């Protein structure tokens, strides 16, 4: 066990945390709506859980080994609006390095928009809705699904707020097919992928780059497009935060107050769900978080049960606002929300207390501890990630879509 300076009276659970050897129990099964969970008082709670450093390197799926050629091809595709129906929006439009490969607004504007981050708006003539949920960061998605034991399967990596995709490769095709994100009015969900493949095949530079990245293929395919995008997104790691350095043995990486914040994070019950190296159990939980009023109907989450996947807590400095609805602008607001779960009405009128996840109901965040916990959460930031933006893309279209 690593010797670590701690306050007197530290619990045995925290010592196990710093050694990284406690196993977190599962919360809800992702194939069952969390709304069907038993009432908190009737369910035995698991231990407090553990958090740990990220691995230094990541693994790739067996059918898509990472190569420099794939990564750089994926980067060009990621920034190229050629993949959208109206050639006006790219993956990078809503996942930009300036915002930790997320976005600084509550709900993204995809098709028929202009500007970047908080300056983005719909064009004057518009009949496109906002995207349904807050844009999640792509940083460290290479490790999605990693457990407290450090094990994960890239081919099965859970994606999106409702777990509707597994692996970065499967995820990559979905925004292209989604009406308000990239598809728009001109194409059906069935025809847009054929159109995109046809466009890319018609560009000489892309054909050459695909042949270098996928020498076994004779023509550009949707499968190879998603593999290139997956390889690029998997390369976007930020795994050397001060927290990571501390957990790897540098006891000077965190101040005494930040270590105290880590202890409070654990003892408050936060790590039951925000566990493991990604500080996420990658399961869905019902919290009763508020809906976003920009949506015409309430977002009922996975299988209509108001469950949403536990987000990572890494790089929160760059990826505000928070929650699936993007309704909280600061980390203090998020912690106030958890404090208010006890004794105050839930923030979502469509969720009652019998639906509330037992693990959320068991969180005990004290007002006096919130600033200290936030100080710890800020140690999870790693600003040294890949921010390279290509000077141009093979289609000749604006890099990143109409964001400038």
Distance between the termini: 52 Å
The CATH architecture of the largest domain: Orthogonal Bundle
Q: How many individual domains? A: 2
Instruction: Note the quaternary state here.
Output: single chain
- Structural class of the helix and strand makeup? mainly alpha
Give helix % range.
Answer: 25-40%
**Overall shape:** globular
- Provide the succession of SSEs: HHHEEEEHHHHHHHEEHHH
Which stretches of 5+ consecutive residues score pLDDT under 50? Answer: 1-41
> Nearest-angstrom radius of gyration?
21 Å
Number of strands: 6
Tell me the strand percentage band: under 5%
CATH topology of the largest domain: Cytochrome Bc1 Complex, Chain D, domain 2
Number of helices: 13
What does this structure look like?
This protein has 404 residues and is mostly helical. The protein has 2 domains: 12-24 and 36-51 and 242-380, Cytochrome c-like domain (Cytochrome Bc1 Complex, Chain D, domain 2, Orthogonal Bundle), CATH 1.10.760.10; 68-234, Cytochrome c-like domain (Cytochrome Bc1 Complex, Chain D, domain 2, Orthogonal Bundle), CATH 1.10.760.10. It is 28% helix and 3% strand. The chain has helices at residues 12-19, 68-79, 91-94, 168-177, 179-183, 189-201, 204-213, 222-234, 242-247, 256-267, 331-340, 358-361, 370-377; strands at 113-114, 121-122, 158-159, 165-166, 284-286, 307-309. The protein has a two-stranded antiparallel ribbon. The model is unreliable at 1-41 (pLDDT under 50).
